[in-house]
Specification:
Pfam families: Glyco_hydro_92 (PF07971), Glyco_hydro_92N (PF17678)
Keywords: Calcium, Hydrolase, Signal
Strand content: 15-25%
Shape: globular
GO molecular function, one term: hydrolase activity
Strand order of the largest sheet: 8-9-10-11-19-15-14-13-17
Cofactor: Ca(2+)
Number of strands: 38
InterPro entries: 6-hairpin_glycosidase_sf (IPR008928), GH-type_carb-bd (IPR014718), GH92_a_mannosidase_put (IPR005887), GH92_N (IPR041371), Glyco_hydro_92 (IPR012939), PNGase (IPR050883)
Number of helices: 18
Helix content: 25-40%
Structural class: alpha+beta
Distance between the termini: 62 Å
Oligomer: single chain
Length: about 775
């Protein structure tokens, strides 16, 4: 009786206690909310995937084309991830997605369960009855790590999705009908347009197995996805429809009715239906395996990763994979909302890049030949303009083996490139040349300097130098000759110059490490090129033509047509992360620099300066500081060089509270393949890599009350924020292993060996 009384008392105490904000549970996926960022400009997807998995099985909510009659369709931008939270219908479930990007592709092999008359047209959002799409309600939608569920209201069908690394598994619960179908749409895609499908091929091997491929010409111009499909129940019939325009010569295939149970299908555009009889509540499952190489490899991937039909087992294994990543971090936060943001950020920072090789190690290279990854896992989809800043440095700290494999993948890319260049923005055996700079250089150098990449450092340096000297690439020839990219020859001349200068500094760092004096001298000189575009008369970076004359008509607040990409000169003038002290002196010293930063965060930016910018809304801006675009991500930490370092702490905490929330609209801009999330994670822990390639982190204001990070080397990094609260955003003292740390920096070498980083928090500003 006494024991029962004690247990009851313990239960009552626990239930009455306030939330502790401490994540000590083994199932940390409960704090992952994949719907965060699925509204407005976050461009995340809510569907099922495993960490860095090749399959991202997720719903599409509309079919807006990239262009109509040759004209760009602006609304398509909302669908970079295929899903928008506010849409009322679901079109289907496809197997490949980008997370948080500002441009898109993919959306391969869309599947949709239906009943009744076969409909191969998706219909429209306002008339879903005209096609195979279905209305749905968020009340009947569940999005978790590696599990997605939704009720499709049109025919009362329950859809459930899960994945392994290379296989998407579907489970559909049907009402009774002799007209149940699985629609297989090989024409559907994200950022779709007439002619995007180069070719599709389907072979029906038996009444439950299909293989094929889809080749597209989009952002990646020669992207081919091979697939293998199995159904848990034989289909009683199947059919296809070709949507090709008139072809002048078709040979003699007209001898067959290729639309009815014909097993050998080939055309630019194919849609299929698989037909079943179903009992009330009957479940039909489908497995879709992908391969970059062949149908045979797709079948091998399917058998290796999902040999049976145990849906719950696949869900459970995927959740275990996620928990393995999440359990590297044991954090105590101020509230549950912060725990959700922290672990969802870890989740979003483990989605891309994605594995790009089959279970046998084969993948298609940039040269369109089949290669085998020897000694590393090959990855694809490198959004380097975004991710060099914090995402790859984050991996160098918490997942170094994986980042080493990513560097090895970049080196393989360079060896297969016809231009012998490291990747700019690559995916699926293609280089799409998106954004500026050659920031793979930053990733490679940072990984070598931090001891993460163990490959041939001299070969890496040569690859960096080769990449930085391809004169035909976006103004590099002029940059090498003039010391800047001229405005009359390039529309993003200033941002290109600034980003090249930083990358060149990275090359110089590696050259110095390897004792290559001549290369170091050359690239240290190039690293100073930012000075050539600073106009001291106005105090900003400014476009200059090939004759050395600054542009006369110049708007310092405008993002468009002023020589920059995704930013105005107020933000980009601070983009000299490698030489910030020199920048501060150039801009007039500490006081003037501090005033500049103050103005950036407090001024008002009129709507006209961003209302035509696709990826930024008012929510992503603080003053004129644009957190939703990456070039400013280091800016708050620059206060550490001034007489008011407490402002760095204040601004970092302000950005965290302003730009990251629970809920579908919880991100202030594109998550950009984990970069926004990596910024949050670093900043929540109290430090940030202002200049990757430098092995120092700059200190800010931690959000955590405490954190334990299990490092790959077996060591533990502890972060403690003493006196942490909403009001105590300022840091009065920092201790590393009990010794006071001065200078607002800490080295990677120190924290990567484990230890305790303690911040003493206060509501009072510490001067100096």
């Amino acid at each position: 009786m006494k024991k029962r009384y004690l247990n009851l008392t313990k239960f009552l105490i626990l239930t009455l206690l306030p939330f502790s904000g401490y994540a000590q549970e083994t199932n940390l996926t409960q704090y992952v909310k994949p719907l965060i960022g699925t509204a407005k400009m976050g461009h995340t997807f809510p569907g099922a995937t495993v960490p860095f998995g090749a399959v991202q099985l997720s719903p599409e909510t509309d079919t807006i084309p990239y262009a109509v009659n040759g004209q760009y369709t602006g609304d398509v931008y909302k669908y970079c991830a295929g899903y928008q939270y506010d849409d009322p219908t679901i079109v289907g479930f496809s197997h490949t997605h980008f997370s948080g990007t500002g441009h898109s592709d993919l959306g391969d092999i869309l599947v949709m369960p239906t009943q009744g008359k076969v409909q191969l047209n998706p219909g429209t959002a306002d008339r879903p009855q005209d096609g195979y799409r279905s209305p749905y309600s968020h009340d009947n939608e569940t999005a978790e790590a590696n599990y997605y569920k939704v009720k499709l209201d049109k025919h009362n069908i329950l859809a459930e999705l899960t994945t392994s690394a290379r296989v998407g598994m579907h489970r559909y619960t049907f009402p009774a009908s002799d007209q149940s179908h699985l629609i297989l749409d090989l024409t559907s895609g994200i950022y779709n347009y007439d002619g995007k499908n180069v070719w599709t091929f389907v072979r029906v091997l038996n009444d439950s197995t299909i293989t094929g491929f889809r080749q597209t010409n989009g952002w990646a111009r020669t992207r081919t996805v091979y697939f293998a499909i199995k159904t848990s129940k034989p289909f009683k019939n199947y059919g296809a429809k070709y949507l090709d325009k008139n072809v002048q010569y078709k040979g003699f295939w007209r001898k067959f009715n290729q639309e009815d149970n014909f097993p050998d299908l080939a055309a630019h555009n194919i849609k299929m239906h698989l037909d079943f009889d179903t009992k009330e509540g009957e479940q039909i499952m489908m497995k879709v395996a992908l391969s970059p190489v062949s149908q045979k490899n797709a079948l091998e991937n399917l058998q290796a990763e999902t040999p049976n039909w145990n849906f719950e087992e696949v869900v459970s294994k995927g959740k275990a994979d996620w928990n393995k990543e999440l359990q590297k971090f044991k954090v105590e936060m101020l509230n549950k909302e912060d725990l959700v943001n922290f672990y969802t950020s870890v989740y979003h920072a483990n989605l891309m890049p994605t594995v790009y090789m089959d279970v046998n190690g084969e993948y298609k290279g940039l040269d369109q030949e089949v290669h085998k990854a020897e000694g590393f896992t090959n990855y694809t989809s490198f959004s380097l303009w975004d991710t060099f800043r914090a995402f790859h440095p984050w991996l160098n700290l918490v997942d170094p083996k994986r980042n080493a494999d990513m560097v090895a993948s970049m080196m393989a890319h360079q060896q297969q490139s016809a231009l012998n260049m490291l990747p700019i923005w690559s995916h699926y055996a293609n280089e799409n040349w998106c954004m500026s700079g050659y920031h793979s250089v930053s990733v490679v150098v940072d990984a070598i300097k931090k001891g993460v990449y163990k490959g041939d450092a001299e070969a890496a340096l040569n690859a960096c130098v080769q990449t930085a000297t391809v004169r035909r690439y976006e103004g590099i020839g002029d940059y090498m000759d003039l010391g800047y990219v001229p405005d009359d020859r390039n529309g993003t001349s200033v941002s290109n110059t600034l980003e090249y200068a930083y990358d060149d500094w990275c090359i110089a760092q590696l050259a110095e490490k390897l004792g290559k004096t001549e290369i170091a001298t050359e690239f240290n000189k190039r690293a100073q090129n930012w000075k050539n575009l600073y106009d001291e008369r106005i105090g900003f970076m400014r476009p200059k033509d090939s004759k050395g004359v600054f542009r006369e008509k110049f708007d310092v607040l405008d993002t468009h047509g002023q020589g920059f990409i995704e930013g105005n000169t107020w933000n980009y003038s601070l983009y000299v992360p490698h030489q910030p002290m020199e920048l501060m002196e150039t801009m007039g010293g500490q006081k003037r620099f501090e005033n500049y930063l103050d103005s950036l965060f407090t001024m008002h930016l009129p709507d006209k300066y961003f209302e035509k910018t696709e990826d930024i809304t008012r929510e992503g801006i603080i003053g004129n500081y644009v957190h939703g675009n990456e070039p400013s991500h280091h800016v708050a930490y620059l206060y550490n060089m001034t007489n008011s370092p407490w402002k760095a702490q204040e601004r970092v905490r302000q950005i965290i509270r302003n730009q990251y929330h629970n809920g579908p609209a919880g991100l202030g801009g594109n998550d950009d393949c984990g970069q926004m999330s990596a910024w949050y994670l670093f900043s929540s822990l109290g430090f940030y890599p202002v200049a990757p390639g430098e092995t120092m982190y700059w200190l800010g204001s931690p959000l955590v009350k405490s954190a334990e990070i299990q490092l790959e080397n077996g060591k533990t990094l502890k972060v403690i924020a003493k006196n942490q609260s909403e009001k105590n955003v300022y840091v009065s003292k920092v201790l590393w292993n009990g010794k006071e740390l001065l200078g607002y920096k800490i080295s990677h070498d120190d924290i990567s060996k484990g230890g305790e980083l303690q911040f003493v928090m206060s509501s009072k500003k510490r001067k100096g």
